[in-house]
Amino acid sequence: MSKFKKFLLSEKEMPMQWYNIMADMPNPMLPPLHPGTKQPIGPEDLAPLFPMELIKQEVSQERFIDIPEEVQDIYKIWRPTPLIRATNFEKMLDAPVKIYYKNESVSPAGSHKPNTAVPQAYYNYKEGVKRMTTETGAGQWGSALSFATQFFGIELQVFMVKVSFNQKPYRKSMMNTWGAKVVASPSELTESGRRVLAANPDSPGSLGIAISEAIEAAVQDEHTKYSLGSVLNHVLLHQTIIGLEAQKQMELADDYPDIVIGCFGGGSNFAGISFPFLKNNLSNGHDTKIVAVEPESCPKLTRGKFHYDFGDTVGLTPLIPMYTLGHNFMPPQIHAGGLRYHGAGPIVSQLLKDGLISANAVHQKECFEAGVKFARTEGLIPAPETTHAIAQVIKEAEQAKLEGKEKTILFNLSGHGLVDMAAYDQYFAGQLEDYSITEDQIKESVAELDLLTK
Ligand SMILES: *Cc1c(COP(=O)(O)O)cnc(C)c1O
Questions:
Q1: Longest CA pairwise span in the chain (Å)
Q2: In the beta sheet, which residues pair with residue 382?
Q3: What's 99's DSSP letter?
Q4: At what angle are helices 140-149 and 114-126 packed, to 10 degrees?
C-alpha cells in the first residue's frame, strides 16, 4: 500500500494532446440530422454557430489531437491538477477500498469546465470572432467561459437558467468580474425566451431553454458565435486531459483503478476522467468498471430513451442521437443545476448502448449526505453535482465490503461547492426534497420523439 497522499505532475509532464475516443469506438455513432430534411448535416450547417477548427474536432477520427501552445499556457495557471488519495474518507467508510480523486476544483472557476472553455475561446479568437453567447445552469459553465474569453478579448453574453440566477447570485458576480454580461433565462432578449414566458411567465427556466436563447442570439449576428459547455464531441475531447493526467498519476501511485466514477450532466467531466481508461478497456485488455452518476430527478441514462432529439428545448439544434427524456422534459429544481439536462452527449450515449459503460441514478439527499461525509473527512466541500459521484463511491465501497473484495476507486472531483453553500444550508435545515419521476411522466415526455424522425 502506498504511503503517499498526493500525486503531482510537473508542468513539463502535462499532456500535450487530447484523446479522441471516436478513433477507438467499436460502433460509430449515428450522424446528426438536419431537422428539416432529416439528412445528415455537414460542416456548413454548423458554421454559423462554431469556428471551423471545433467543427473539425467534432467529426475527427484522429486518435490524439495537439493542444495548442497558447491553450497549454493558460492551462498551466492551474494544471496539472492534483490526484489525492482520500485516506481519511477511506477510514470512515471502513471498507476494503483505496479511493483516489482527481481534484478539478483547483481551476480559477472552481470546476473542470475551463478545460474546454479555454480552447473554445482560443479557436474562436483565431478565427476572428468578436462576441460569443452561451447558456449556463448553475453558473459554472458561464463563469468558466467568462474566465476564458477575457484572455482573448472576446465579449460574452450568458443566458443563465432563472432558478440558478436567483439561487446562486455569486456565480453571476464571478461572470461580471471576468467581464461577461448575464441575463436570467427565459429572457425578453430572444424570440425563444419570449415564447416560453408567454406560455408560462413563472417558468424557472431549463438548460434546454437557455441553449435555445444563446443559439438564437448567435445566429442573428455574423460576428457572434455560440459555445456549449458539455454534450458535444469536441467538449468531451478537451476534457480528456483530466484522465490522461490521472493515468500518469495512478502510475506514480503504483496503482490502477478497478472503478472510475464521474457525475453526469451532459457527459463532459465523466468523459474527461473515464475515456483514457476506457481506451485501455477497449484495446489493452483492462476491465475497469466505468460509472456515470445522474440525479434520480433527471434520469436520462437510466430511464430515458435512445432516440434522435434536439439538444435544446425550442428545436434550433440538429437532431442528435442520444439517451433523452425528451427536449420538453422540465427537470425538478434540484440543487445540482449542472445535472438538470434532458439528454446525454452522443458519444456517451453510444457507449452506454453498447454496454461499455454503466450508469446509476441517486437521490439528492443521499448525495448531500455523501458530500458532507467527504467534507468532514477530506476537508474539501464538493459541488452539489460532484456529490453524486461521491454517493456512488460510497455504494461501491459498501459493495466491496459485502463481497470482501479489495477495490481501487478513482472519481472525478469535478468542482467545489463554495458558491453553493445555500444548498448545503437547505440540506442542513431539512428543506431538501427527493423528486421521483413517474414512468408515465417519462412516457409522455418521450412520446413526441417519434414525430421528429418521421
Ligand atoms: C457542469 C458541471 C457538471 C456537469 O456537467 P458535465 O458536462 O456532465 O460534466 C458536473 N460537475 C460540476 C462541478 C459542473 O460544474
A1: 61
A2: 416
A3: E
A4: 40
What is the per-residue pLDDT across 101-110, written as a single tens digit (0 to 9) for each? Answer: 999 999 999 9
Q: Which three cell numbers stand for residue 193?
A: 425566451
Decide: 275 and 236 in contact? Cβ < 8 Å: yes
* Closest atom, ligand 1, to C-alpha of 230: 7
Q: How many CA atoms lie within 13 A of 118 on its CB side?
A: 25
Cell 436570467, located at residue: 184
Give the Å distance between the CA of 39 and the centre of ligand 1: 31
88, containing H or E segment? helix 87-93
Q: Choose one of 120, 175, 269 to mutate for the ligand 1 pocket test, by most ligand atoms within 8 angstroms of C-beta.
A: 269
Instruction: Report the phi/psi class of residue 153: left, alpha or beta, with left for phi > 0 and alpha for psi in -120 to 50.
Output: left
Mutate to test the pocket of ligand 1, among 145, 207, 414 (most ligand atoms within 8 A of CB): 414
Three-state secondary-structure class, residue 134: strand
Choice from 101, 107, 116, 140 to test ligand 1 binding pocket (greatest atom count within 8 A of CB): 140
Contact 248, 13 (CB under 8 A): yes
Nearest CA to 267 out of 310, 301, 225, 308 is that of: 301
pLDDT in the model for residue 132: 98
| Domains within the chain, CATH numbers bracketed | 6-13+68-110+235-452 (3.40.50.1100)
CA-wise closest residue to 362 among 254, 435, 280: 435
pLDDT value of position 149: 98
Question: How far, in Å, from the CA of 354 to the mean position of ligand 1?
Answer: 23
User: Helix and strand tally (H, E) in the chain?
Assistant: 20, 15
Measuring from atom 13 of ligand 1, which residue has the nearest CA? 415
Ligand 1 pocket test target in 147, 241, 385 with most atoms within 8 Å of CB? 385
pLDDT over 60 (residue 2): no
Q: pLDDT digit string (tens) for 313-343?
A: 888 899 999 999 999 898 877 777 778 889 9
CA distances from 375 to 174, 193, 281, 391, 417 (A): 24, 39, 32, 13, 10
Residue 386 CB less than 6 A away from ligand 1: yes
Is 267 near ligand 1, meaning CB less than 6 Å away? yes
CB of 349 within 6 A of ligand 1: the answer is no
**Total length of the chain:** 454
pTM, to two decimals: 0.96
Q: Cα(137) to centroid of ligand 1, in Å?
A: 10
pLDDT of residue 436: 87
Which helix (DSSP H) or strand (DSSP E) does residue 289 occupy?
strand 289-295
